[in-house]
Amino acid sequence: MVLRMTRRAALRAFGGLTAIGLALAAAGLAQPVLAQSGAPKGPVRIIVGFPPGGGADLLARLLAPELQQSFGQPVVVENRPGAQGRIGTDLVAKAEPDGQTILMATEGAIVILPHLPEPLPYDPLKDLAPVSLVVRTTPVIVANPSVEADSLKDLIADAKANPGKYFYGHSGVGGPNHLMFELLKQKTGAKIEQVPYQGTGAVIPAVLSNEVPLAIGYLPSFVPYIKAGTVKPLAVTSGERASAMPDIVTVADAGVPDFDMSSWLGMFVPAGTPAETVTAIRDAVVAALQKPEVRKSIQSGGQEIVGSTPEAFAKVVQSGSDNYRDLIKTLDLPKQ
Amino acid sequence: MRLTVTRDLLAGLLFLGLGGGAALMSSSYRFGTILRMGPGFFPVTLGLMVALIGLVVTARAIVAPDGSPPVGTIRLRPVLLVSASVVVFALLVERLGLAAAVAALVVVGSLAGPGLTVRGAVAKVVVLVAIAVAIFVYGLAIPFKVWPW
Amino acid sequence: MVSDVFANLATGFSVAFSPVNLLYCLLGVTLGTAIGVLPGVGPLVTIAVLLPLTFGLPPEASLIMLAGIYYGAAYGGSTTAILVNLPGESSSVVTCIDGYQMARQGRAGAALAIAAIASFAAGCVGTVLIALFGPLLGGLALEFRSPEYFSLMLMAMVLTAALAHGSLLTSIGMAMLGVIFGLVGTDVTTGVERLTFGLSGLGDGLEFVVVAMGLFALAEIVANLDRPEGAREVFTSEVTGLMPTRRDLRTAFGPILRGTAIGSFFGILPGAGQTISSFAAYLFEKRVSRTPERFGEGAIEGVAAPEAANNAAAQTAFIPTLTLGVPGSATMALVLGALMIQGIAPGPQVIVQHPTLFWGLIASMWIGNLILVLLNLPLIGLWVRILRVPYHVLYPAILVFSSIGVYSVASSTLDVLVAAVFGVLGYLFARAGCAPAPFILGFVLGPMIEENFRRSMILSRGDPMIFLVNPISATFLLIAALAILAMIVPSFRRRKDEALQEEAA
């Protein structure tokens, strides 16, 4: 079995379209800030494993000027796209642990790729040190309006009664969206066939035109269509409802207990980076996340601001990795 | 009979090699059926078709060598040195930085052409390194390692 | 309805026409052109590099500057196609064919001018089309699902092979080879990595600029250095006129109109609209021309038609991009990202929700086109002077710029190495008389043909009738079948051979 995220799946890993409204805050009047003792001592690179324009890239570009102000050092965003984020992640994993190379990661390269058959040149749990889980986004399951079922419960019942009646579109084989829907199928026993697309950008017209009656993708990408009534939302996959659209029920609400799958963007540094440097970076991120213009940019994109501690992030990474390992093992994914 | 290397013969052999190679490389991917294609279906089928075209073109070139103009002498110096200059750039740009990589590219690349003098090479290196650094590093702020140190 | 359109356009122009905004547009066009003309730095890299400049501006200024960058970068890509035989993106591949020949004959000025004029004319028509029909045409893209896309792209491939320059068999072979190279990378349907030699850097497939640098720029440099001593003059020293003659303009008039029509139609289809439209416009002109043998030898129609088509398609491509949120190309995806930063969320309501921004964008596009022409016509003298640089200085400079350009797409040294491999391959193809254009079309369309075929088969549960019961798809297949039939029918074949002999003579 070989499976991987496709390029676009990775590009859109946090929904390229989730970027809606993520603005580069104007640097504003620079106030001299006392750099903390652990702050990086030289120019800082934030590495993004995807091309410019994706969710990770835009978040990095949003935070870079803020970090620059905190550190008193130039902070640049560097795109190292390729191989679903492997290339950028590997670069950071092998960089000097001095806080001057920071990874803005999507969950794919950290908790999913290690469990796919292709060997990785790095071990995300050993070679990288978590700094902070910056934002979360939930996927949403949507249906073309012509689908009769109005709730996930009805849909699952119908799909079980008529195996093979439904198809769902997702943004790439082995990507988080694909795996989450497969988990849903596994938990409910519904037979719904998967149709892979190159990224959420291609999934949207497919469900609008009813080429596939169902689709899964990050909520922010679908918000305009949900508002226009051209797709109907069935459920979000996270454990809690999304603050951007609290009317949409969760999969757990729809009768699949303990279903809690959401995606994150977070920062890592090379393992071995001094603890005070990790703390300094995390503090700078949290300070940036408290600025109203930064908050507004992120929230208007439909993402949830987190800014966790390194310890909390480490737990999320560990449990996410365990979950995906078990999931990938048990799923009946398409074989090569 | 002396075999002239005609354009068709070269084209045929290229198709045969590239098509056959692609088919061979793809033979390990699941083939599937025409209605349920695996990842191997397209590359294997196309590879074989290209190889077949190559076979026909090659045969035609051997049977009727007058049908296509001869390739003529292939001088290896330009093609090898031009490619080598690009390879040298690729190998050096991250290790020794942009300036050294451009300098090496210009020197190796210039060897591909005629009448290179030391003074000419130095002039070209200085000018092109200056332009490249000015445009890409200062102008466009692309994060390059510029100098070897 | 029509008065609405004028009211809307007036709103748009009042937004875009402030002196400050015009200045931003001029700045965008200037920078876009200046960077886009660096060989090997295609529109994608140009836009990616310049995009951050627009982020800090107010929405209207940002949009108009973006429009300037977009058109400047696209024109810069065509400029390198004409001057140094290096297309910036796949839609300017056909511009190379006759544009570069014109440059070698001392007519680079006319080629560059006609490209700018054709782009502007097409841009005007495209703007009006979006204004009149944009909201209506948004839905058309939804009529195209996997079977339609498969059939459309197959038809485009068949037609290109049927009408291409040179031997039919080698054209087909090159197109198929292009498809094979297009398949390199991760298979969308199964996630399997194919033909990557185990290099994870190839997992995302081959970049267009990598292939173009090798097959076009490197192959051309080697071919020039390869010539026997006496025949080494690459560009004639007799440069005739910087501007097109009245006769040139008359000749180009029809091709510009037809190219615009073809481009406007294909641009609406997301995916490969721009590439298909420039190829289609070129082939159509060659077909209707009374002197098809001039094509490939520096025919001005061969520059005018694809440039018009390409720009019209770039314009109408905004319709699906804005109304469906589906970017038609990698370049468009970047533009879309910039729009979203300005709070324009693509989607069905974009026009209603943000009328000033939407109509402002449309007005900006037109102004961007206008400034492009005004800026570039006087600059043509400067570009043409580049060709007077002695070739032994010019070619190392092309090597430097294109190597850096290819490297900066993804900071990948592997990409540069692959370009070198394609250089050798391109040289061999050139010596074997195999034209690279069908290869590029296969390279761009092939993976989409495969993906859409396989998706159609999943959705129809393995019933191939899905391609025939659907009228749009069936029509495309019928045209493709007729073209194949015409190739096989001997009388046509004879005529083609005669035409070829004339060309050879």
TrEMBL record, chain C:
The keyword Magnesium does not apply. InterPro entries: DUF112_TM. Keywords: Membrane, Transmembrane, Transmembrane helix. The chain crosses the membrane at residues 6-27, 34-57, 63-87, 108-133, 153-184, 205-225, 261-284, 324-345, 357-377, 389-410, 416-445, 466-489. Coiled coil: none annotated. Residues 22-441 form the DUF112 domain. Pfam families: TctA. This is Tripartite tricarboxylate transporter permease.
